[in-house]
């Protein structure tokens, strides 16, 4: 691998990802505006579209969010009619989250809107999107592996 010696801020991958993350948040804010959803609320819906009817703890783990961060988000989504929260019959301590009809029915419209915004406004096609996603996932896995290995060394 070639040495990465340029220390200029504009040439740092971490700074580029930081700015991209910030801009993604703004992009999703605008794109999801017609549905009155925040980006974080949208990723909750994504997780439930993938697997409806999850416990609070499973959903928190999947999204890598603390349950005390997730709970107010879920309350707002419930108030807006996107999902329901109910206690499990077999264990009243467990909170189960599931989509409402609105939550299920709006999936296609939201996906189409986001795809349209990405294609037309950001000008990224499906192949570019897939390539960037794979590169980002590879980077994420490398960082996770590194952090896991260094944590073991310092414990």
Automatic annotation (TrEMBL):
Keywords: DNA-binding, Transcription, Transcription regulation. GO terms for cellular component: cytoplasm. SUPFAM superfamilies: Winged helix' DNA-binding domain. This is HTH-type transcriptional regulator SarZ. It comes from Tetragenococcus osmophilus. Residues 10-148 form the HTH marR-type domain. InterPro entries: HTH_MarR-typ, Transc_reg_Sar_Rot_HTH, WH-like_DNA-bd_sf, WH_DNA-bd_sf. The keyword tRNA-binding does not apply. Belongs to the SarZ family. GO terms for molecular function: DNA binding; DNA-binding transcription factor activity. It is found in: Cytoplasm. PANTHER family: TRANSCRIPTIONAL REGULATOR, MARR (PTHR42756), TRANSCRIPTIONAL REPRESSOR OF EMRAB OPERON (PTHR42756:SF1). The keyword Transcription applies. Its main location: cytoplasm.
């Amino acid at each position: 691998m070639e040495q990465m010696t340029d220390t200029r801020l504009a040439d740092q991958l971490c700074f580029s990802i930081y700015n991209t993350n910030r801009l993604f948040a703004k992009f999703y804010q605008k794109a999801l505006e017609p549905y009155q959803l925040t980006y974080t609320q949208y990723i909750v819906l994504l997780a439930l579209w993938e697997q409806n009817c999850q416990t609070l703890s499973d959903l928190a783990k999947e999204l890598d969010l603390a349950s005390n961060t997730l709970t107010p988000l879920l309350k707002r989504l419930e108030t807006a009619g996107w999902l329901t929260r109910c206690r499990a019959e077999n264990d009243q301590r467990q909170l189960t989250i599931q989509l409402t009809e609105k939550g299920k029915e709006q999936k296609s419209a939201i996906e189409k809107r986001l795809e349209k915004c990405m294609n037309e406004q950001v000008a990224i096609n499906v192949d570019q999107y897939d390539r960037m996603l794979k590169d980002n996932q590879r980077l994420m896995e490398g960082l996770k592996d590194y952090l896991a290995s260094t944590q073991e060394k310092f414990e």
